[in-house]
TrEMBL record, chains A, B:
It holds the Pfam family D-ser_dehydrat. InterPro entries: Ala_racemase_N, D-amino_acid_metab_enzyme, D-ser_dehydrat-like_dom, D-ser_dehydrat-like_sf, PLP-binding_barrel. Signal peptide: none annotated. It comes from Sphingomonas anseongensis. SUPFAM superfamilies: PLP-binding barrel (SSF51419). GO terms for molecular function: alanine racemase activity. It is an enzyme of class 5 (isomerase). This is Alanine racemase. It comes from the Bacteria. Residues 266-373 form the D-serine dehydratase-like domain. Its EC number is 5.1.1.1.
Length: 388, 388
C-alpha cells in the first residue's frame, strides 16, 4: 500500500514536492546509460542490466537506448512487472527457493524466458522435479564463487559437474550456463586490485564454462558483472554478458570506487529543513533512515559521507563541509564535518538534496521518482516496483 | 507499486509463504499490547501509540483493546490512512515543513483533529500565516529537547515563550501543548540510567508546561515517550499522555534494553535457505538488507545480533550459536558465532525466521504482515501504509 498523496500528485517544480521524495535527474541517467553501453560494446559482451537498482520500466528504456534488452532481476515482483511491460528475457539472479517455483512456472507458461540460478545438488533436483511435474522446462545457470564473498561453487569444484548432471538428467530442467558476481570488487581500492578482481571473475566463469563443455555440457551463457569489474576489466574474453545495475544512478560508494564522479549521481533525496538545534550545531531535515536507508557504505572509504552528501536543492551543487551525520526514522541530522555550520544555507522550511551512499538501498525506500531534466521542473513521475 | 503476487496471495501456512515475508504473531502482539495498557494505566496517563512501528489499522485495533485511541504518526501517509480508517485524533510528530501544510489543511477540513509540532519561530510564523490564509486553525505542540539528542527547545530557553507568542498572535494557529522524546534512553544501560532519563524527560516537559502556564498560555497536552522511558519511569506526574511505538512488536534492541524478552518479539522475517557455502561456513538465505533492513542496532550492546537472530521457522524457537552476519540486497549470510555450524538445521529449501534488531526499520521493508496465532497457520494478511 503506497498511495499517491491526494493533494500533491503532480508537482510542477521541486519546490512543490512534498518531502521526503526521490529525485531522478534524467540527463545524468542518460549520460550514465550511454557510457555503459559504450563500455560493454568495447568489451564485446551483451549488456544485461540488473534492474534491482532502478525497478522501473521507464529507467530501463533509457538504459536500453531503445533496444530489446535482456535483464537481471533480484525479485519475482521485478520479473512480473518487467514481463508485463514487455521484457521477455529475464535472469532471476538470487538462488532459487522452492516456494518461488510456482511463480516461476507461471511466468514461463506466459511466454517469459525466465532463468534461475542455483549452486547445490539439492536445488538442481528440486528444480528438475518441479519442472517435470509441471510439464515445463526450467533453464538454470550454475552460480560460481570467484571471490569467496557470498554464494556459488568454486569453478574447479567437482560439485560443478555434479550439479550440471542433475540438471541434465531428465526433462524438467536444462543447464543454460554459468554466472558469477564479484562482490569482492567493493573492497578493492587501487586500479591494480580492481583489474585483478575483474580478471578473477572473468577467468573463473570462463574456466567453469570450459570444464562443463569439456564434459559435453552445453554452456550458452557465461555471465559476469558488477559495475566496478565491468568498468575496470582489462577484457572479457569468453564472457557472453555483463550484469550491472548501480551504474545507472551512481552513488557515493561508486564515486569512491572511481566508477563515477559525485556530479554524475543521478538520484537524490529531497528533504525539508524542519529544525535548527543551534546549541548542538545541528540542522534537522525530514529525511531519516526510511528515506535515506541505513546504508553506511562509505564508512570504510577515505571520505566517509555519513548517511549522505548534502546538496543545494535548486542547483544540485554539493554543499561543502557538511554531511548527514545521523538518522532516526523520519529525521536526518546534518552537521559540519569541520568548522562552523553556515546556517544561512539551511533556512527553516528550505530544501536540500541528499546524495545516497548506495543507490539501490536508497531508491528502494521510495515507490516513485520525481524526474527532472537537469533543472528544477518535474518532467515526469516514474513508478518503481518494490517488494517481492 | 507493491502488488500482491498473483500466485500465492493467501497461503494457508508459513510453509506456503513466498519468501522473504514479514510474519506477525498476534498472540505476542496481544500480550505486548496488554502489558503497555496496564503500564500507562498504572502511570495515570493516556496512551497515544506511535503507529510508525506498525503502520496498520489491524495492529492498532489490538493495541487499543477496542477503545477509540488517539495516535502519533511519523508521516502524512499514516495520517491519511488512519483517518480514513476511523481515527480522529492524530499527532504528526515530525517538525512541520511548509510543503506539507496543504495536506494538513485537507485533513483538518475533513474533520481530523490533526496537530503538528515545531520548535522554531520561523515554523510557528509559517503555520500561523498558512492557517490564516486558509481560514483554518492549526493546533501545534512545541517540541522540547530534554536530552540533547535531536530536536527541540530547551525547557528553560526564552525561545519557548517566543514561539508560544507567535502561535497565539492571531487566528490561524493555536498552542495545544508541549511534547518531547527521550531518544537518549537508547544509550542507557542500567536501571538507574533509564530512570534518570525518564525523569529528565518528564521533568523537562512538565517544567516547560509550567513556564508557559505561568505566562498565561493554555497547555492542555504534555506529551512524552519512548518505550524504554515509559517502562522505566518512576512516575509521570504532570504528564498527560505517553507516545510509544516499538513496544507493540518488541525487537532485539528492546530485549537488550530489558523492555521485553527475545521470546516476546512479535515480528520476524521468514526466509528460505538458498545456498550452503561450506568452505566458508555460510548459510545463504533470501532475506537481505531490503527484507531485514540495514539496521545494526545491537552493534553496541553486550549481545551483537548482527543483522538478526535466527529462529526455527516452524516453532519460532531461537537457534543458538548463529546470527545473520552480513547482508546484500536480497541475500542474508548466516554464520556460527562460535564453533561449528550445524548444517542439519538449514536444509536447502528449508525456512528460518529472523528476529529484527529494530522492529520499525524491518517492518517498513514490507507492505503486509502474514499473521499467525502462535502456530504456523496464516490467519490473516494485514496491510501496512508505507511511504509518505
Amino acid at each position: 500500500m503506497n498511495e499517491l498523496s491526494p493533494v500533491a500528485t503532480r508537482p510542477k517544480t521541486i519546490a512543490d514536492v512534498a518531502t521526503p521524495a526521490l529525485i531522478l535527474d534524467r540527463r545524468k541517467l542518460q549520460s550514465n546509460a550511454d557510457r555503459m553501453r559504450a563500455r560493454v560494446a568495447e568489451l564485446g559482451v551483451q549488456l544485461r542490466p540488473h534492474v534491482k537498482t532502478c525497478k522501473s520500466i521507464d529507467v530501463l528504456r533509457v538504459l536500453s537506448g531503445g533496444a530489446d534488452l535482456a535483464i537481471t532481476v533480484s525479485t519475482l515482483a521485478e520479473a512480473r512487472y518487467f514481463f508485463e511491460n514487455g521484457v521477455r528475457d529475464i535472469l532471476y539472479a538470487v538462488g532459487i527457493a522452492p516456494s518461488k517455483l510456482p511463480q516461476i512456472a507461471d511466468l514461463i507458461r506466459r511466454g517469459c524466458t525466465l532463468r534461475v540460478i542455483l549452486d547445490t545438488v539439492e536445488a538442481a533436483e528440486m528444480v528438475q522435479a518441479f519442472g517435470l511435474a509441471e510439464g515445463i522446462t526450467i533453464e538454470a545457470l550454475i552460480e560460481l564463487d570467484t571471490d569467496g564473498c557470498r554464494a556459488g561453487v568454486a569453478p574447479n569444484d567437482e560439485l560443478l559437474l555434479e550439479i550440471a548432471r542433475r540438471l541434465s538428467s531428465d526433462r524438467g530442467a536444462r543447464l543454460a550456463g554459468v554466472m558469477t558476481h564479484a562482490g569482492g570488487s567493493y573492497s578493492a581500492r587501487t586500479l591494480g586490485e580492481f583489474e585483478d578482481i575483474a580478471e578473477r571473475e572473468r577467468a573463473g566463469a570462463v574456466s567453469a564454462a570450459e570444464r562443463l563443455r569439456a564434459a559435453s555440457f552445453q554452456v550458452e551463457i557465461v555471465s559476469v558483472g558488477s559495475t566496478p569489474t565491468v568498468y575496470y576489466a582489462r577484457g572479457l574474453e569468453g564472457v557472453t554478458e555483463a550484469r550491472v545495475g548501480v551504474y545507472a544512478f551512481g552513488d557515493l560508494v561508486q564515486a569512491e570506487l572511481g566508477t563515477c564522479g559525485v556530479d554524475d549521481i543521478a538520484i537524490s533525496v529531497l528533504a525539508s529543513v524542519i529544525g535548527h538545534n543551534r546549541s548542538h550545531g545541528r540542522v534537522l531535515v525530514d529525511a531519516g533512515f526510511l528515506a535515506l536507508s541505513r546504508d553506511r557504505g562509505t564508512a570504510d572509504f577515505p571520505v566517509d559521507w555519513g548517511y549522505g552528501a548534502v546538496c543545494d536543492a535548486a542547483t544540485g551543487a554539493l554543499i561543502d563541509g557538511v554531511r548527514v551525520e545521523s538518522t532516526n526514522q523520519e529525521h536526518g541530522i546534518i552537521t559540519a564535518t569541520s568548522g562552523e555550520l553556515d546556517w544561512s544555507r539551511f533556512p527553516i522550511g528550505g530544501q536540500v538534496r541528499v546524495l545516497p551512499n548506495h543507490a539501490c538501498a536508497t531508491a528502494a525506500a521510495h515507490d516513485r521518482y520525481f524526474v527532472v531534466d537537469g533543472g528544477n521542473d518535474i518532467v515526469g513521475v516514474w513508478e518503481r516496483v518494490n517488494g517481492w
